[in-house]
C-alpha cells in the first residue's frame, strides 16, 4: 500500500469543509430548537420519530440502532433515559430471547405529536426555504447517490 496520503485538492477541501460547516450548523440549530420548543433532546426526537414512523410504534433494538447509525451502548443509554421519562418502553422479543423491542408509549406519541409541527417549521425556515425546487431535487439526488455509495463501503 502506498504510504503517501492522497490529499484533497483545494476544490475538494472547500466542498468538504463547506458541507461539514452547513451540516453542523443546521443540526446544531435544529437540536437547540427542539430542546427549547419541547424539552426533548435531539436524540429523544430522533428515536421517537423512527419509532412512530415504523407504523406499529415499535422496533427491534438492533434495527433501531442501525437505522440511526449509533453505537449499541449509546442507544442503550438513550433508551434508559427515555424509559425513565415514560417516553418509551422495552418489550421482550418472543422469537429471540436476547432481543428486545423498543416501543413508543402514549406519552412518547404525545411528545412527538407536539414537537413535530414546530420542528418541521424550523426545517422549512432554515433549509427548505433557502433552496429552489430544482436545487432541492438536485440535493436529494446527490444525497441518495452518497448514501448508496456509503452502503457499499465497509465502516
Task: Give an overview in words.
This protein has 155 residues and is mainly alpha-helical. It has one domain (29-152): Winged helix-like DNA-binding domain superfamily/Winged helix DNA-binding domain (Arc Repressor Mutant, subunit A, Orthogonal Bundle), CATH 1.10.10.10. The protein contains six helices and three strands; from the N terminus they run ααβααββαα. The protein has helices spanning 10-38, 42-53, 61-67, 72-84, 106-126, 133-152; strands at 58-60, 88-93, 96-104. Strands 1-3-2 form a three-stranded antiparallel β-sheet. A hairpin with a 2-residue loop joins β2 (88-93) and β3 (96-104). α1 packs across α5 (106-126) and α2 (42-53) packs across α5.
Q: How many domains? A: 1
Which percent range fits the helix content? Answer: 55-70%
Note the overall shape: globular
Tell me the strand percentage band: 5-15%
Q: In order across it, which strands form the biggest sheet? A: 1-3-2
For this structure, what is the CATH class?
A: Mainly Alpha
Could you state the order of secondary-structure elements as H and E?
HHEHHEEHH
Q: How would you sum up this structure in a few lines?
A:
The chain has about 160 residues and is mainly alpha-helical. The protein contains six helices and three strands; from the N terminus they run H-H-E-H-H-E-E-H-H.
Amino acid at each position: 500500500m502506498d504510504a503517501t496520503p492522497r490529499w484533497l485538492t483545494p476544490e475538494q477541501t472547500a466542498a468538504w469543509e463547506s458541507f461539514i460547516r452547513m451540516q453542523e450548523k443546521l443540526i446544531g440549530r435544529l437540536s437547540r430548537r427542539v430542546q427549547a420548543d419541547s424539552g426533548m433532546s435531539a436524540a429523544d426526537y430522533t428515536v421517537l420519530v423512527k419509532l412512530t414512523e415504523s407504523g406499529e410504534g415499535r422496533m427491534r433494538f438492533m434495527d433501531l440502532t442501525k437505522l440511526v447509525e449509533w453505537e449499541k451502548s449509546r442507544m442503550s443509554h438513550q433508551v434508559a433515559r427515555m424509559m425513565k421519562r415514560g417516553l418509551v418502553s422495552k418489550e421482550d422479543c418472543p422469537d429471540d430471547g436476547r432481543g428486545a423491542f423498543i416501543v413508543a408509549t402514549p406519552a412518547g406519541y404525545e411528545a412527538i405529536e407536539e414537537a413535530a409541527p414546530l420542528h418541521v417549521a424550523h426545517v422549512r425556515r432554515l433549509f427548505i426555504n433557502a433552496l429552489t425546487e430544482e436545487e432541492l431535487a438536485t440535493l436529494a439526488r446527490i444525497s441518495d447517490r452518497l448514501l448508496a455509495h456509503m452502503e457499499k463501503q465497509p465502516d
